Known about the structure:
Elements: H1 12-48, E1 56-60, H2 67-71, H3 87-95, E2 100-108, E3 112-119, E4 124-129, E5 132-136, E6 142-146, E7 154-157, H4 166-177, H5 180-183, E8 186-190, E9 197-201, E10 206-210, H6 215-227, E11 232-234, E12 242-243
Parallel strand pairs: 1-3, 4-7, 7-8, 10-11
Antiparallel strand pairs: 2-3, 4-5, 5-6, 8-9, 9-10, 11-12
Amino acid sequence: MRGPENTSEPGPWRLVHVVRRKLPDRRLRWISISALALLALAFVIVWTTPLFEVKRIEVTGTSVLTPEAVAALGRDAVGDSVLGADLDAIAAAVAKLAPVKSVDVTRAWPDALSIAVTEREPYMAVPVDDETFLMVDSEGVVFDETSTAPGSIWRVELAEPGPDDLATIETLIVLQALPSDLADEVEHVESPSPASVTLYLEDGRTLRWGDGSESEQKAEVADRLLAGGYEHVDVSAPDAPTVS
């Protein structure tokens, strides 16, 4: 009498079972290898094919600057692969231009780079002479020179305007803290020193503000004294104002 078959012994059916079990793993392996090969091929094509070379530098957002001046800072990338272009280096070069507040550099497939510029907005016009004005933004940065001053911005006399100049800093603090009704009356401003910001009103009166400290209290005192009809008001020390 024969006993039960020993299923552990190799045989034709056992071999078929092993092959069937291993086939999906091999197929997955080949699919993965093929996918990686395709990715590598695509990378090589993008990196080396003339179709994906940088041919154009597109510039948007300029007004003070010309698009050509900005595009020139990315000209070293022309002829290189779009994929290999050093966007950070181009952005850093553009950001050094005084009128640029911020910049964003991106790839514009298949053959261009895009430079989107946000320029500084004028906040103060500082006269250099009768025909020249420096444009200064709300951070104190001098970024342009023009022959006329826009009527919508402050006209301020400063010796050395700039973001590190104390007189510029205090003037900005004062102007940004002025109540709107008082601001509307200001014709121009003179700031010979950080503690001597003086407002010249449209009706000919003067208001010496001093530095940018205690602006809320100074505004209250100035409003009361100007309402009294005084020609010259000094609120640089709001607890002890002077008038004449």
